[in-house]
Amino acid sequence: MPLSAVILAAGMGKRMRSSRPKVMHSLAGKTLLRHVYDTARRLSCDEVYIVHGHGAEQVRAAHETCNARWVEQAQQLGTGHALMQVIDAIPASHHVIVLYGDVPLVGVETLSALVDAAGATGFSLLTAHLDNPVGYGRIVRGATGKVVKIVEQCDASEQEQLLREINTGMMVARADLLQNWLNLLTDDNVQREYLLTDVVGHAVQQGIEVQTVFPASSMEIKGVNDRAQLAELERHHQLEQAQALMRQGVSLADPARFDLRGTLATGEDVFIDVNVVIEGEVHIGHRAVIGPHCVIRASRIGDEAQIHAHSVIDNAEIGARNRIGPFARIRPGSSLNEDVHIGNFVEVKQSTLGQGAKANHLSYIGDSEVGARVNIGAGAITCNYDGVEKHKTIIGDDVFIGSNTELIAPLTINPGATIAAGATISKDVEPGALTVSRRENRVVPDWKRGRKKT
Question: Is 286 a catalytic residue?
Fold first, then answer.
């Protein structure tokens, strides 16, 4: 059946104590709203509507890649009022699924079941049983077990507050029915708002049986109202992702200390140590090892590569059998061939390194093409920026760069050349040549070093 999703995302979120709208806060590297939007798209909705209000321009700018129809709720007068802003635009033949921009973990399987349940009567409701239902609207059922109404916490009697079945707010209804019920809403309640929950009572009065569906987990229906709840959902989501990876054959040293803020594809027998953060789209090859406290962002790690502790790989290609780190930084635009060694406190930026190249410690390689089997000594740097423009350094195969060397770009060092330690090179070097750039030592015997005055 045709399906439109409406995501309610107009609230401010005062308890977040933030200048950002609540739906802009991130969980696992995506905004809360983006999580809900992506789930709606996985339902194969014909159209997605996002009702926004507080921080409207900021919210839209952050989600410009979302293929959605944006509707502004200038005044926040309740969930029913929010849906009133969009219902006229939805074809009467559609079913409407109502979602919330601050409930990010609801699953596709649960929502699919909710959509299917609405096929029987035109109306279905997602409810849940909670041990502690305080704060939620309660589901009131009649003698036959059918839903009679929803009563909000502040409007509930003492007896109704003892009920443990709660309303999640998520529902599916035929658009023509929903429009009729919305027209009947009033703000005659404690909150002085037009409440979407009141449509249940109108449906019952018209003889429409409310179908109910339960989520697979109560975590699916938990919303974010403050930072503590956001952290709770973050950790739950991360643990779910960690368990899914382990089922696929990834070894995690501690699933509770792993963060995936994007997507991760892996080969066989991958090992990931503690406190590793994966961001964006990452691929890790067979038998690769990721050491503790590493950050890998939008990169590919080759087979049998070893990324040692405290290294950062950012938008880079790491070849098979590379050894990176510890404390290495591979910056965007870098591509390392097979068997490359990048050691501690080495930074590589916008550069390619050929097979077997080595820079084992304390070096900077920027805007460079480095050939195969090149050895770059400790403290060697490429001087690629003149204050205005970046320039390129080309280092041929089998070049040896001595320690504490400055390579001033633009520069070409041809294959087989050797640069002696302590050199400053500003002119191209011929193939196989040795270049020495240093002054002779001057020795002053019996030198008297100055002393501080007492």
Answer: no
